[in-house]
Amino acid sequence: MDNVRFNPRFADVAPYDAKYLPADCLLSANESPYNLPDDIRYEIRKRLKRLDYNRYPDPLANELRDLIAEANGLERENVVVGNGGDELLFNTALAFGGPGRKFLNCPPTFSVYAANAELTGTEVVNVPRLANFRIDEMGVLTRVAEGDIDFIIVTSPNNPTGQLVSDDFIRHLLESTDALVMVDEAYGEFARTTCRPLLERHKNLVILRTFSKAFSCAGVRLGYLLGDAAVINEYLKVRQPYSVDAVSQLIGCTVYQNRQMFSPNIQGIIEERDRLMEGLKEIEGVQAFPSDANFILVRVAGASEVWEKLYERGVLVRDFSHAPMLEDCLRLSVGTPKENNALLKGLRKVLKERNRAQQA
Ligand SMILES: *Cc1c(COP(=O)(O)O)cnc(C)c1O
Questions:
Q1: Phi, psi of 230 (to 5 degrees)
Q2: What is the pLDDT of residues 19-46, one digit of tens each?
């Protein structure tokens, strides 16, 4: 047969492209610039020696679940672990979306949300952010008041724009709707805040966190949700039984038990973010948006060309200039002090050379 019965629903779907390229300074994916601390890596190696590779893992990763629950003042039933936050986002669309159901999105934001809605046949209702990338709070509250929204994702701090959402707004939203409200706190550690206290009073809140950013584990694939037991149970219904493998569970437990060791790196990244912001403000032609995360969104004329020139200098950042509402925007992940210096120096050089070329 030289024909295949492709599903027409996916005819126009493009596979996800992380736009990863080799470079000296990898500042495009919001990863931690620091590998796991040596002591943790040593402990992982020690524990791996006793791992039964031939056995299926605990499908629910209960040991890790219990560690996370205890640290958050919750029970095992309030936690589900996933193969990265991304799996849990997909499971959200599976469990709460589907044909005939609606997802309220606040673009520009993480593109994975809308992609998951498309894959699951969920209708996307967009309430775009304001020009300064703050959430249109009135717009969201007015739209949910119509009563037909099934789930909402609020990203705080938002990716790729960097802003935190106010606790008051989240509380108001939770009180205004019976839709599931996910607060994606993938970058919460860099903002030193969480809406976890709201879990006590609001059954429709679910919080997403990940090991990929502040905890240096993007390569491991671990994320988790905190929520009401009935909400978590919906996730247990749709999840792949063995999505979190034994090695990831072992690493997750070791990292989580030693999570206080990440405080100096998190503090350092916050300080570097603020230093990078000061440096960016001094570069003419660059508009930097305030950020509570480990990245900064900037607007600069001819962003794609700037991206290319930076890449030629060994600095890889993320080009968002073709995304809706993000014309001429680049997202710069905070790296090590050395990497951030290379980025600032590169930007200054590239813009200066362009000015000179334009004047000639
Ligand atoms: C990185 C990220 C995640 C989770 O990423 P994983 O690596 O799959 O855990 C979730 N939400 C946002 C907004 C992110 O940027």
A1: -70, -35
A2: 789 999 999 999 999 999 999 999 999 9
Residue 159 CA: which ligand 1 atom is closest? 13
Q: Is the pLDDT of residue 16 over 90?
A: no
Q: Nearest CA to 109 among 96, 126, 93, 121?
A: 126
Rounded to the nearest whole angstrom, what is the distance from the C-alpha of residue 285 to the centroid of ligand 1?
Answer: 30
Across the strands, what pairs with 209? 224
CB-based contact 223:88 (threshold 8 Å) = yes
CA 170 to CA 205: how far, in whole Å?
Answer: 9
Output the pTM of the full model. 0.97
Please indicate whether residue 158, judged by its CB atom, sits closer than 6 Å to ligand 1. Answer: no
- Give CA–CA dist 214/236, Å, rounded: 26
The answer to whether residue 117 scores a pLDDT higher than 80 is yes
86 lines ligand 1 (CB under 6 A): yes
